[in-house]
Write a structure and sequence with these properties.
The complex is a heterodimer of chains A (about 160) and B (about 775).
Chain A (H helix, E strand, L loop, with lengths): L2 H23 L2 E3 L3 E4 L2 E4 L2 H11 L3 E6 L4 H10 L3 H10 L1 E6 L4 H6 L7 E5 L5 E6 L4 H20 L1
Parallel strand pairs in A: 4-5
Antiparallel strand pairs in A: 2-3, 4-6, 6-7
Chain B lengths: L2 H25 L6 H27 L6 H6 L6 H7 L4 H23 L3 H23 L6 H4 L22 H16 L1 H15 L3 H38 L9 H25 L7 H22 L14 H23 L17 H33 L2 E2 L3 H23 L6 H18 L23 H7 L7 H18 L5 H29 L2 E8 L6 E3 L5 E16 L11 H7 L8 E12 L4 E7 L2 E7 L9 E14 L4 E15 L2 E16 L2 E13 L2 E5 L1 E3 L4 E11 L2 E10 L2 H19 L2 H5 L3
Parallel strand pairs in B: 7-9
Antiparallel strand pairs in B: 2-15, 3-4, 4-10, 5-6, 5-8, 6-7, 8-9, 10-11, 11-12, 13-14, 14-15
Helix pairs in contact in B: 1-2, 1-6, 2-5, 4-8, 5-6, 5-8, 6-9, 8-10, 9-10, 9-12, 9-13, 10-11, 10-21, 11-12, 11-14, 12-13, 14-15, 15-16, 15-18, 16-18, 18-19, 19-21
The chains are: A alpha+beta (about 160), B alpha+beta (about 775).
Chain lengths: ~160, ~775
């Protein structure tokens, strides 16, 4: 057969296989209400998160991210999945993940231009601590514990 | 109607008339339209220049009654950023685009306006230009606030504009948009030429215009390519400098969308070069690739501007998305349909050169073009498919950098090896070429298994969000990045060998052009090595410094690095603000005029503070109005001299102050006191000076800043560039005594910028010394 034709046919088959395969293996990161990052379930909207926070009397971690964000990937693969961090987040925090590409409203309300960013908020909406950027797990664990201590003391007073 | 729109409508009308004239001429060749057409296009273009200048003038003067200026600028921006405000939003961009499609149209008209081929091209080009003028008119940047908000009083002028996004206040960001938009607009020319060529080919008289078409299309493709390359690279350079995450490329949909036309255009250029040598080769494919690269430019605009595809870049929607979508579809369908009809007449010629007949120049080139198409498609799919999924199911699909890195890897490696073969390929020494190719292929495969550490994996396994790796992904992901080295060496070696072989030519221009080609291909190796290694082998260290420990070296645990704080300070930048609202209360002069009729219980008085005296309990401020004076007492501390104030309270006559040890003739005791300072903080900059050490020796020193503007914050990172790599320091913030930093070591990152310079200089040489451009005059 003519080599150019062969190459062209192989190209067409290859591209179709690629489309099929990539569609099948790509993970669903979020649906309408929740985002699934690092084995945790996050609310998509700050408002819904705050409702849950009031009910459960827990501080909220608002995580600002984007699918193409390089440091977010590090946060999501090294920091959040860490056993101890994961447990604290699951049990003692209400989680909100703001996708900068989708939830521009919340991103704007917090004045976040660039992912990642992590903001800790009380159920009343006061900011406890704000981190602009990513963190290593050791540092993030310290911050988590500080926020917890602050939150507990706040309740006593 | 405002003057800008009036001119724009006239421009549109003239453009439409020019097209009518051009179309009439196509059917009635005996009617001579050359002279009127030339003038029409001149006027058309001059009006466009006028319109764009008018918009720029509004920005230079910060005419806040123009809604577009009010949205994207403010009075205190430096001139450079006032100018970049013109391209900060969609409307100005569309006009700029029309302007730069108009420019080549004028150039073609002036030089060869009477050629029938050019006239046909003008029909396409002027239509495209009109589409953009139409889009501009739909949502005009010239609209005044009074037109948009009829309730506003005609005398109202906003005090100040919204200002520019602080991330965009950077010199590189001032040049990035115009360069990329010039590239995008310039690509309309090859599109028009290619579509017309495909159209003429239908009647099978393309040979008649062959010479004309190839000269123009190659030149405009190369010009577009230089601008596009620079535009993309400057965007990356800016991101590296301003976004503060230590990277220059994140595969976000907008970045990817600018790379898609780049790949297609580069593939198209390769096809064009072959087509130029032999007009029967790639008679369809070359114009098809070239025209589709402009289609992809429109698609990029859709991605950037419509909000249809989400990305931080996606500015404001403005409702033009649908129109751009229609334009994209039309601009894809026309060349595709023409190409399909054309294939019926394509003849196939087989190149025969003995043994291993399938290895020949034609097939190698074809394979190269195919690789460009594959990479284009992978990128296109990566940004399109999540959007489709979201539209259809509402689910967001996790496609991040690793998707492109994984799928791009085999394509890039194959392309580099193939380029190595192609650059140095000669039919006479074919077997030697193939042997070399196989040797490098073998070394590449071996290198794929050698990993000094886990960091050398192509993709960090765990890098895809919340999922277990599919088999194919983890397979490619576990390849060592060392495998990029042999193809790069092969590419550089072949590029040099190729040039050496061309040196025998007596023609200097020819040699200079060949040097350009080699330099561009060496640039590929530099960019690949630079980007791969600066990403994979970068290291990041969070550091916390105590602001009281200046000069102390803080070692970073688990690394050979240390940081020394050399100094820190907080700087304020002020801007002048408007005085107090003059409709509140009365001036000092008016007060003295009024009190002749007797004192009232309470007065509201405004004025400028001339002198301030601070006592333990009160602040006394002297208001001065010409030769009239009035003292005001308040419990507010720190009243700046020169401030404008509005104070409400009761009047005391001949007030004796023991602290001031004097009698004040008239004193306003004002519990209600507002300060309208003459200036206001524009930005607050936390600045640190640090030195980074490796072991005991200093490797970098510089200033990192964290700046807070009234409309957002931005980190100004410290970058100490070096041949081996960059030391990159981000100041996260100063909290009390605690200074929080990130230190990043980015190896080899400057190879990327060197590669971009190679690309640009190489292509400039090719453009300047191309033999076809010399022949043009004849």
């Amino acid at each position: 057969m003519h080599p150019k034709k062969t190459i062209t046919i192989l190209l067409a088959i290859g591209l179709l296989l690629f489309v099929y395969y990539s569609m099948n293996v790509s993970p669903v990161v979020s649906d309408k209400r929740h985002t699934y990052i690092s084995g945790l379930s996050w609310y998509n909207s700050f408002e819904e998160g705050q409702k849950a926070a009031l009910e459960q009397d827990k501080p909220t971690l608002v995580y600002f991210w984007a699918t193409w964000c390089y440091i977010c990937e590090e946060m999501q693969t090294e920091v959040y999945p860490d056993q101890e961090i994961n447990k604290i987040l699951k049990e003692d925090f209400v989680l909100v993940a703001v996708d900068l590409d989708i939830n521009k409203e919340d991103a704007q309300a917090f004045g976040i231009w660039v992912p990642p960013a992590e903001i800790f908020v009380t159920p009343e909406g006061d900011t406890i601590h704000k981190i602009g950027g990513g963190m290593q797990k050791e540092g993030f664990l310290i911050v988590l514990k500080q926020v917890q201590t602050y939150y507990e003391n706040r309740e006593k007073t | 109607m405002n003057p800008g729109d009036t001119v724009l409508y006239s421009t549109f009308a003239i453009g439409v008339s020019a097209i009518i004239l051009l179309v009439i001429n196509q059917f009635r060749k005996e009617i001579d339209v050359d002279v009127p057409l030339k003038w029409m296009i001149r006027v058309f273009y001059e009006l466009l220049i006028f319109d764009f200048s008018l918009l720029t003038y509004y920005f230079v003067n910060t005419n806040l009654t123009i809604n577009y200026v009010w949205t994207f600028s403010s009075r205190d921006l430096p001139m450079l950023y006032k100018l970049s405000g013109v391209l900060a939003g969609q409307q100005g961009t569309l006009l700029f685009w029309a302007l730069f499609i108009g420019l080549p149209s004028l150039w073609l008209s002036e030089r060869r306006g009477s050629s029938d081929f050019i006239k046909k091209t003008q029909i396409v080009l002027v239509s495209l230009c009109l589409s953009f003028i139409g889009l501009t008119l739909k949502d005009s940047p010239f609209k005044t606030i009074y037109q948009l908000y009829p309730d506003i009083s005609k005398s109202f002028v906003p005090a100040d504009g919204n200002g520019l996004n602080p991330l965009l206040i950077d010199p590189w960001m001032a040049v990035h948009p115009p360069i990329i938009f010039i590239a995008y607009a310039a690509m309309a020319v090859p599109f028009a030429l290619a579509v017309v060529y495909l159209f003429i080919s239908l009647k099978d008289d393309s040979k008649r215009v062959q010479g004309e078409w190839i000269k123009d299309v190659i030149m405009w493709c190369r010009i577009s390519w230089i601008f596009l390359t620079l535009g993309i690279a400057i965007g990356g350079f800016w991101a590296y400098k301003v976004l503060g995450w230590g990277g220059f490329w994140s595969w976000d949909p907008v970045e990817t969308s600018s790379l898609v036309p780049w790949f297609l255009l580069t593939g198209g250029l390769h096809a064009l070069v072959e087509h130029k040598k032999d007009g029967s080769k790639y008679r369809i494919l070359a114009p098809l690739l070239v025209s589709l690269s402009f289609t992809m430019v429109l698609y990029a605009t859709l991605v950037t501007r419509s909000g249809f595809f989400e990305s931080v870049h996606a500015f404001d929607a403005g409702g033009t998305g649908l129109y751009i979508l229609i334009m994209t579809v039309i601009s894809a369908l026309i060349p595709l349909t023409l190409a399909v009809i054309n294939t019926r007449t394509e003849e196939h010629e087989e190149e025969k050169d003995g043994k291993l007949a399938f290895v020949n120049r034609t097939n190698i080139f074809y394979l190269a073009i195919v690789l460009f198409v594959i990479f284009t498609f992978v990128s296109f799919w990566g940004m399109t498919f999540p959007a489709i999924s979201r539209l259809v199911s509402g689910n967001k699909i996790g496609i991040g950098a690793s998707f492109y890195n994984l799928w791009g890897y085999p394509v890039i490696i194959a392309a580099m090896l193939l380029a190595g073969l192609a650059l140095n390929y000669k039919a006479s020494t074919k077997e030697k070429s193939i042997r070399e190719f196989l040797v490098f292929l073998g070394i590449t495969v071996v290198a794929g298994f050698i990993k000094p550490s886990e960091a050398w994996n192509l993709v960090d396994y765990s890098a895809i969000v919340n999922t277990t790796e599919p088999f194919l992904y983890s397979l490619i992901g576990s390849v060592s990045i060392l495998s990029f080295i042999p193809p790069s060496i092969y590419l550089v070696y072949s590029a040099i060998e190729r040039f050496k072989a061309r040196l025998v030519s007596p023609k200097k221009r020819y040699i200079a052009k060949q040097l350009g080609i080699s330099v561009i291909h060496i640039g590929v190796a530099l960019i690949v090595i630079g980007s791969v290694f600066s990403y994979a082998l970068d290291s990041e260290f969070p550091v916390s410094l105590n602001s009281e420990e200046k000069g102390k070296l803080t070692l970073i645990p688990g690394s050979p690095y240390g940081v020394k704080l050399l100094g820190y300070e907080t700087l304020y930048e002020y801007k002048d603000v408007e005085g107090p609202p003059t409709d509140i209360g009365i001036g000092v002069g008016e007060f003295y005029d009024e009190i002749h009729g007797g004192l009232k219980e309470s007065y509201t008085i405004h004025g400028d503070v001339g002198e301030v005296v601070q006592t333990p309990h009160n602040t006394y401020a002297k208001l001065v109005d010409g030769n009239k004076e009035l003292w005001v007492a308040t419990n507010i501390a720190d009243i700046p001299e020169g401030a404008h104030i509005v104070a409400t309270g009761s009047i005391n006559i001949n007030f004796k102050s023991s602290y001031l040890n004097t009698t004040l003739p008239v004193l306003l005791m004002a519990p209600d006191f507002d300060i309208y300072s003459g200036r206001e903080i524009f930005s607050t900059t936390q600045q640190i000076k640090v030195a980074v050490y490796k072991g005991r020796s200093e490797i970098a020193e510089g200033i990192a800043e964290s700046v807070t503007y009234f409309n957002g914050d931005v980190q100004r990172v410290m970058i100490d560039r070096g041949i081996k790599g960059d030391v990159y320091v981000i100041l996260n913030g100063i909290y009390g005594k605690n200074i929080s930093l990130d230190v990043r070591i980015k190896p080899l990152v400057n190879l990327v910028w060197a590669g971009v310079i190679f690309f640009t200089l190489g292509m400039l040489a090719v453009l300047a010394f191309d033999s076809t451009s010399k022949k043009r005059g004849k």
